[in-house]
Amino acid sequence: MNVRVWQLVSIFLSALVTGVFWGPWLGLSRSIKTFKPDVFLAIGHRFIRNLAPVMPLLMPAAILSIVPVLVISFHERPRTFYFTLAGFALFSIALLVTLIVEVPIDNRIKSWTVATLPQDWQQLRDRWETFHIVRTMASVAGLFLLLAGAIL
Questions:
Q1: Kindly report the CA angle at 85 between 84 and 89, in degrees rounded to 5?
Q2: Which of 47, 84, 86, 104 has the largest CB neighbor count within 10 A?
Q3: Which helix (H) or strand (E) holds 9?
């Protein structure tokens, strides 16, 4: 396959990942501190159940689909290569944040009930939110760079 086909695949998959991060940030996360514990847990549990089966496949697929673009463009299209490499780095950061910070917190949240909320639940919620912003912005910027590599 040529570079254009791989760009289409990688941009499509990366847009799906970015949408998963951007939508909840825009619609929910910016007001997450106003949720009462039962509402926070209901939303958190639903998100975890819905995304847990999908994201372990989608995120690596999106990142891996960028590799052929890098390989093909390395000699033929230096501008495409560098934009794509920067996008790849940002999506890799989003993946690392997800694996190192977000998933461990999610694994704790999914076992919580209103009656078993730990004392530090608000600090954990806030830590999750801070790193969710990091991965959301990394993926938005990464998608922008993948698009720039394809267009410019």
A1: 115
A2: 84
A3: helix 3-27
> Which residues does the chain have with pLDDT short of 50?
none
For the chain, the average pLDDT equals: 96
SS3 assignment for 16-84: HHHHHHHHHHHHCHHHHHHCCHHHHHHHHHHHHHHHCCCHHHHHHHHHHHHHHHHHHHHHHCHHHHHHH
Q: pTM of this prediction? A: 0.93
Would you say 83 and 76 are in contact if contact means Cβ atoms under 8 Å apart? no
**Which of helix, strand or coil describes residue 83?**
helix
**Residue-range domain boundaries for the chain:** 3-151
Please give the DSSP secondary-structure letter assigned to residue 30: G
Beta carbons within 8 Å of 69's beta carbon, 6+ residues apart:
3, 6, 7, 10, 80, 84, 149
Gyration radius from the chain CA atoms = 17
